């Protein structure tokens, strides 16, 4: 019995350390699964593009397991990680047993995003908001809010949407969008993909922490529907003009602030799997807080300060990459569980496993931070002049 447990533990540790070294994904990742769909997409205006190289990433409803509630991730302008890359939005899809969220990604072509009409160039298929030309991104003014005084690489092409305009936020299931990938979108699925950048992950965490963005609170009309830049929820934010449709929470979750009673619109069927007990504390890397960073090095030696600051920035980038890799691995395991329609016990075991992995990662990163601070601290202390002793 002990040998079997030891072998299982050894295999788990080996798998954990075999996470790929690059944050490049080969297909859309699945973040979560459940059995009641998200609210309709709210109606909102696009904020002004902050500068060249920024690409619009539309807002969407994400889901918080701990709260059992959808929350709105505001649309925002994001700098492309590389010239030539476009954003394929994530989308919710019904697989016959549960709703699955297919995460968005960066790639040379726009892939399938569920046929969801997110607006501002994302009309359900492809992207009509702009194009790359010789390393520069050109914006279509007919669907984007562009200040031509600051941004000159623009064009104007009217977008004719041949699909029915609606605010439906999911594919398949009762009342969902009935769309399948086109041949060019299937080809795009096999392209080289890059996961969300760090700024996008921070943007999601900020949205998740804001109670006013929860569907049970805002009833489908978020007070922050879009932002000019990611992770900035204060400067020139845009509120939703109206909800995209009635908010209908699931039957086992009462609405807040006098929201209307549950209805069938975004609630296909109850599922006992949603009642699985979740462990206390962070379960996934996306649940980990971004702790306060230490102050910039101040040794009195400019070159040494720059060196230490570069070391710190390199460590923070490495930590973010490690979190993304582990999150993607856990997302894939959630997808496999949903496909197998695993029971409560299996789902709970998976959550406990994920929590252990996440805690190990958090501990490793804390030790690395302490080690760096201990290595840099003596030099900073030596550079500071000793305080004069008081005269007696």
Task: Describe, in plain words, how this protein is organized in 3D.
The chain is an alpha+beta fold and 392 residues long. It folds into two domains: 22-266, no CATH class; 275-384. 30% of the residues lie in helices and 15% in strands. It has helices at residues 2-17, 183-189, 198-209, 215-218, 302-340, 344-383, and strands spanning 24-25, 30-34, 54-57, 60-64, 69-73, 75-79, 86-88, 91-94, 99-102, 105-107, 130-133, 136-140, 154-155, 170-171, 193-194, 226-227. Strand 8 and strand 9 form a beta hairpin. Helix 5 (302-340) packs antiparallel against helix 6. Mean pLDDT is 79; it is low at 1-32, 254-265, 267-278 and 383-392.
In short:
The chain has 392 residues and is of the alpha+beta class. The chain has 6 helices and 16 strands. Helix content is 30%, strand content 15%.
Largest sheet: 4 strands, mixed
**Overall 3D form:** globular
Helical residue percent? 25-40%
Radius of gyration: 23 Å
| Total number of domains | 2
Helix count, per DSSP? 6
Annotate the secondary structure layout:
Layout: H1 2-17, E1 24-25, E2 30-34, E3 54-57, E4 60-64, E5 69-73, E6 75-79, E7 86-88, E8 91-94, E9 99-102, E10 105-107, E11 130-133, E12 136-140, E13 154-155, E14 170-171, H2 183-189, E15 193-194, H3 198-209, H4 215-218, E16 226-227, H5 302-340, H6 344-383
Parallel strand pairs: 6-16, 8-14, 12-13
Antiparallel strand pairs: 1-15, 2-9, 3-6, 4-5, 7-10, 8-9, 11-12
Helix pairs in contact: 5-6
């Amino acid at each position: 019995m002990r040998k079997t447990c030891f072998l299982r533990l050894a295999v788990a540790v080996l798998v954990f350390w075999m996470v790929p070294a690059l944050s490049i994904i080969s297909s859309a990742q699945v973040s979560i699964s459940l059995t009641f769909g998200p609210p309709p997409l709210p109606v909102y205006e696009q904020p002004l593009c902050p500068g060249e190289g920024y690409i619009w990433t539309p807002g969407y409803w994400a889901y918080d397991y701990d709260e059992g509630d959808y929350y709105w991730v505001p649309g925002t302008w994001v700098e492309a990680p590389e010239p030539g890359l476009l954003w394929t939005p994530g989308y919710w899809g019904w697989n016959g047993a549960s709703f699955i969220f297919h995460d968005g990604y960066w790639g040379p072509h726009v892939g399938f995003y569920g046929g969801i009409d997110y607006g501002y160039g994302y009309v359900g298929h492809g992207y009509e908001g702009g194009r790359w030309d010789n390393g520069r991104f050109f914006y279509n003014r007919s669907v984007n809010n562009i200040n031509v005084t600051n941004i000159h690489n623009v064009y104007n092409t009217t977008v004719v949407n041949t699909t029915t305009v609606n605010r439906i936020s999911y594919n398949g299931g009762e009342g969902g969008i009935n769309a399948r990938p086109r041949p060019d979108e299937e080809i795009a699925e096999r392209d080289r993909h890059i996961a969300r950048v760090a700024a996008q992950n921070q943007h999601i965490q900020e949205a998740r922490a804001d109670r006013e963005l929860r569907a049970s609170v805002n009833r489908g009309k978020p007070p922050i529907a879009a932002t000019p830049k990611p992770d900035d929820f204060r400067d020139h934010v845009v509120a939703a003009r109206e909800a995209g449709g009635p908010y209908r929470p699931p039957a086992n979750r009462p609405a807040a602030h006098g929201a209307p009673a549950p209805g069938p619109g975004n609630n296909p069927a109850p599922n006992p799997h949603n009642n699985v007990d979740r462990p206390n504390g962070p379960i996934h890397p996306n649940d980990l807080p971004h702790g306060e960073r230490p102050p910039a090095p101040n040794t009195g030696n400019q070159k040494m300060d720059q060196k230490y600051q570069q070391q710190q920035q390199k460590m923070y980038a490495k930590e973010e990459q490690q979190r993304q890799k582990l999150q993607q691995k856990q997302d894939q395991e959630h997808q496999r569980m949903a496909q197998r329609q695993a029971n409560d016990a299996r789902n709970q075991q998976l959550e406990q496993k994920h929590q252990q992995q996440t805690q190990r990662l958090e501990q490793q990163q804390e030790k690395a931070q302490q080690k760096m601070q201990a290595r840099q601290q003596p030099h900073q202390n030596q550079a500071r002049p000793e305080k004069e002793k008081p005269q007696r």
